[in-house]
Amino acid sequence: VISREASALCIDFFKNEKAQNLYIAGTEDGLVHKCSVLYSEQTLENYMAHTGPVYAVRCSPYVTDLFLTCSADESVALWDHKQTNPLLELKKDKDKIQDLAWAPFDSCVFASISRDASLKVWDLSSSTMNPLISVTVPAWDPKPEVAEGEAASKKGSRPESPVYATSAAGSPNRPASPSTEMGDFKDDLPPPELTCVAFAPNSPVVLVGGNDGIVRVYGITNVDAPQASRDKAFTKKQAERLTKASGMVMPTKV
User: Fold this and answer.
1) pTM of the complete model beyond 0.85
2) In whole angstroms, what is the distance from residue 21 CA to residue 48 CA?
3) Which residues of the chain have pLDDT under 70?
């Protein structure tokens, strides 16, 4: 008898203190497991999540029960860990989805990136069918010329990250930046393979990393990022918004 355990590719812990021992793990065979640091020999729950490797799992920072997964099967799924079927499945990509990130300023907003250089920002309170923003990240073309007398060590040096202001239609406005002195973005070159995505903690800005060593910074103009203190009232409101958007039933206090 030949047995084989699938390798884990990603992991994330639940954000609530009451569930701090619980974590979600995604595997190369498409399964997702709920586990506990208190039980090393068994899983607490198994989810038939995807038909390809699971590249990222992200627990919601506002609703303890919810988490996102993305996979090589070109889909994103939203889960309630108490159910073995997904609450939502989003299939708008045409290549492997490499990473996910929840927005810290809005419980319903998250970003996803795929291998074919597609960046999508979703707002579940607005639509569960279409992303709020969808852009193809362009290739970076460093200028090969080096000014006369410039140190040879500067050849191939990376510029500062360019800032894009991205509209809802997905057309980036490219303001002047110091990076234009070292290179430019080219739509006619093969785009980079995107590898990671993250939001800035206090502003509607998303950062995208690629296999070309460049981090691209996008400013999102059509979402609100509250500047006020994120107190218990704010957290409760955000939890209610995501619960409603996901179709999840809010627990009733007895």
Assistant:
1) no
2) 22
3) 1-5, 143-183, 226-229, 248-254
